[in-house]
Amino acid sequence: MTTGRTGADGRYRPGRKRRLNTALLILLAAVVAAGVLVALGERTISAKPTCAGQTSTAQVAVSGEIQPVIQRLAVLFNSEHRQVDGRCAAVAVHAAQAAAVATALKRGTQGNLQPPADAWIPDSSLWVDVARGSPDAAKLVRPTGLVVAESPLVIAMPRPAAARAPIFGTSVGWQILLPPGMGGPPENLGLNVQFPDPTQSAAGLAGLIEIKRIFGYGRAARGAMATFALNAQVVQPKTAGSLPSLDTFARPLAGSEAAPLTLTSEQAVVAFDRSHPDEPLAVRYPAQGTFQLSYPYVLTTTSRVRLAVAKAFEGELRSEYASAYARYQGFRTGTGAAGTWPKSYGLASAMPQLLAPPGPTQADKQLHAWNVLGLGSRFLAINDVSAAMATPVAPGGPTLEQVLGRTSAAGMQRFPDSTEMGLWVFASHLNGALPYKELVPMGPLPGQFGVVTRRQAIQRLAATGRTVPHAPAALYGTLLAAYKQMVANYKPQYVNDIIVLTAGVENDPSDISAATLLRELRPLVNPSRPVEILMVVFGVPKDLGDLQQIAKLTNGRVWPVTSAAQIPLIFYKAFGRRICQPHCPGHP
Questions:
Q1: Which domains does the chain have, with CATH numbers?
Q2: Model confidence over 193-203: pLDDT tens digits?
Q3: 3-state secondary structure at position 267
């Protein structure tokens, strides 16, 4: 950190005079550097003769933040009037979000789809791995080995907020991005973690890969990943760029004590601090090591002529001028060399410690996991109101219905607004001859249900309860009816599940047996319309084995619980199972 910016305790202590002097020196250095770069560029422009004849133009798609660099180099290249195969060679640069280009390239040329560009400079080689995820695309997408620029990732906060946050000390690990209770900062610190969207930002994708490494593998790790995905405040990148804008991030609402924190790049910090000299950011490199955004040059065309033009442009990208201009714009070169900016902005001149780069399949795997966790959900919640639910969980304690009902009502806050849900209750003969009754029809949780939202209605009904004295439980008949309805009304863009809160008792003489239910369910189970039965059972009922067979047939799960505290964890485990469906190791 620069003297006058931070004290020994790592907190910001402003020094107006020194900051002014520093700002003037930065401005002077920038003017001199810009003058040198312009002179070099003008000398290059005037060195070549005019090219006459037809022009072959290669389209180059680039990530938004590096567009000014590549656009400048394209102007120089075009002014050199090179010839390729007897034609004038030119390049046209346009900004494009790397994730969108990767998706388009992954489709290959099937269906007469044309590549989105002849050459491509994404913000990370991770997107190249994603783009090469199909056989056609692997032939089409050809890295040249040239990395035009690099920019390591940093964790950033506005300096005033960092001064109030002792946790943002001299050493900050990746765990600071995690929710409270998962190794992240305690909730009372008031940190507002803004995580770049992994589906659109290489910074977010790299961060997700490291967070997955911290969580590890197995059932617990899947639950942890679901917890992170459902609690993270995801922020979209700016247009065509890879990173969310730092403008609103660095200006919390007036009077707010919130401490915003995000994952961004060195170059983004340089760009922000240059344009906001009175509002510099506080930055830390992750203590365990960091990843970096790299900007590889990739060929993506099948046209022989445009490919030749794109290869010729590669020479411009390898020039000393290209490296100098990239450093001037706040990037490091492909060899890690920094410009004159790092010390002024609290950044390291030397390349920080880097983590081992992810394997070629890691990006696709974590994107799949994230996308699956983000799928909308359709849950039919079924609450047991039979007499068995009036059993106290302990002598003199609350009943099963009170424990499960109150906990499920509180757990409703964990479901995102994209969730659709309906509520049934069951016992025996609740609706004429039927053992179940619909209290809330299926629909979006934020939608209106009378004078309240559907979420509020389900919460109130679950919390109040309505145990029917002396009523037996027709659990199996209710499950069959619920499964039929969910299959009939299946929505492919959603995860469709049945969630049952029950004592696990089946004792209605008029109901079907477990064997009958299994026989009736088998022809209904359709891999193209998967509906899982998920049951939370309080205690260990004598019919637990039958319940497990029923759930297993639908690729579902039974969770016996003995305390209300276990139920929130089950919620995240249920979501985490999406990552490995339909073949979760160690469990059906």
A1: 16-150+293-359 (3.40.190.10), 169-291 (3.40.190), 375-579 (3.40.50.410)
A2: 889 999 899 99
A3: helix
